[in-house]
């Protein structure tokens, strides 16, 4: 049977296995670092995170903050901190922004658990941390920065990290790297589309043409964002794949616009930040 490319199918088996393993090992950790994509502060979060974690303290990292406007992401930081009652940091792995604060926050969050263990007569041990988040939000790159090494496998494709492993950040913190968590049932296709925009869904799960059209439909709802796209692609008329193809002279035989190629370039340019800085979620 041919897969329906109008619907995004995005739950690889190895990620399902990783979620089960994470639940088994959560009792080993003191603190959870949840990594979000700053372009999708809401859509890149895990709906059932509180149910999954219980009362584990959590530090939220809005990664790839270099791809968003600072003033806009500040509003999201305030909103998320209020809603989650958790500390939130904006980071990006290119400039190491706020990385020096992560270890301090982790130790602060872990200290009550460490003190409780010491009260039972146990010796002080390093704080144990787990990193969670959707594929391609930058978990492995963050761990590499924290450990100042490249021991953890990284890559630009969704779901690269496939094995759990302990990583020593410093003498005071041990970290368990884990693959991204995705909901068991993906019923919210609007969220799935947004995750496809930022490459958090495997490219095998969707048609670039359909996702490209959906990205433009969302961008067209925001006058400021639409203007950035039209300027980048030198489009004078409506912002469509067809008009972008014609403006860039991406034409196939017969004089028709090359829609497939245009969609692929559109998604790549957006993900690389070439078009501009955007937050695709809306504050309630």
Key features of this structure:
284 residues, alpha/beta, six-stranded mixed beta sheet, 10 helices, elongated
Query: How many β strands by DSSP?
Result: 6
Q: Note the overall shape.
A: elongated
Structural class: alpha/beta
Mean pLDDT: 85
Give the count of helical stretches: 10
Could you list the spans in which at least 5 consecutive residues all have pLDDT below 50?
Answer: none
The order of strands across the largest sheet is 3-2-1-4-6-5
Largest sheet: 6 strands, mixed
SSE sequence, one letter per element: HEHEHEHEHEEHHHHH
Determine Rg (CA atoms, Å). Answer: 20 Å
- The level of helicity is 40-55%
Query: What is the CA-CA span between the terminal residues?
Result: 40 Å
**Percentage of residues in strands:** 5-15%
How is this structure best summarized?
This protein is α/β, with parallel strands linked by helices and 284 residues long. The chain has helices at 13-25, 49-53, 70-84, 99-119, 139-147, 189-197, 208-219, 223-233, 241-248, 259-271; strands at 31-37, 58-63, 88-90, 127-133, 165-170, 173-177.
What does this 3D model show about the protein?
With 284 residues, the chain is α/β, with parallel strands linked by helices. It has ten helices and six strands. Strands 3-2-1-4-6-5 form a six-stranded mixed β-sheet, with helices on both faces. It is elongated.
Give the SSE layout.
Elements: H1 13-25, E1 31-37, H2 49-53, E2 58-63, H3 70-84, E3 88-90, H4 99-119, E4 127-133, H5 139-147, E5 165-170, E6 173-177, H6 189-197, H7 208-219, H8 223-233, H9 241-248, H10 259-271
Parallel strand pairs: 1-2, 1-4, 2-3, 4-6
Antiparallel strand pairs: 5-6
Helix pairs in contact: 6-7, 7-10, 9-10
């Amino acid at each position: 049977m041919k897969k329906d490319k109008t619907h995004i199918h995005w739950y690889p088996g190895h990620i399902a296995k990783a979620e089960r393993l994470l639940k088994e090992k959560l009792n080993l950790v003191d603190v959870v670092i949840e990594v979000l994509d700053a372009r999708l502060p809401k859509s890149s979060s895990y709906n059932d995170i509180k149910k999954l974690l219980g009362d584990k303290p959590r530090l939220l990292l809005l990664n790839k903050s270099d791809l968003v406007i600072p003033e806009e992401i500040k509003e999201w930081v305030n909103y998320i901190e209020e809603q989650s009652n958790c500390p939130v940091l904006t980071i990006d792995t290119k400039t190491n922004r706020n990385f020096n604060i992560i270890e301090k926050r982790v130790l602060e969050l872990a200290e009550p658990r460490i003190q409780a263990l010491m009260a039972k007569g146990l010796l002080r041990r390093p704080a144990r941390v787990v990193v969670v988040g959707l594929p391609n939000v930058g978990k492995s790159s963050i761990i590499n920065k924290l450990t100042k090494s490249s021991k953890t496998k990284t890559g630009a494709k969704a779901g690269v990290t496939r094995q759990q492993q302990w990583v020593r950040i410093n003498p005071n913190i041990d970290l368990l790297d884990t693959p991204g968590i995705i909901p068991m049932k993906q019923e919210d296709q609007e969220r799935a589309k947004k995750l496809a925009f930022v490459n958090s869904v495997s490219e095998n799960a969707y048609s670039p043409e359909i996702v490209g059209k959906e990205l433009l439909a969302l961008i067209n709802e925001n006058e400021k964002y639409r203007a950035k796209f039209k300027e980048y692609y030198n489009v004078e008329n409506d912002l469509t794949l067809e008009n972008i193809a014609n403006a860039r002279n991406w034409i196939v035989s017969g004089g028709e616009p090359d829609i497939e190629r245009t969609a692929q370039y559109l998604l790549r340019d957006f993900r690389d930040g070439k078009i501009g800085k955007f937050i695709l979620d809306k504050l309630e």
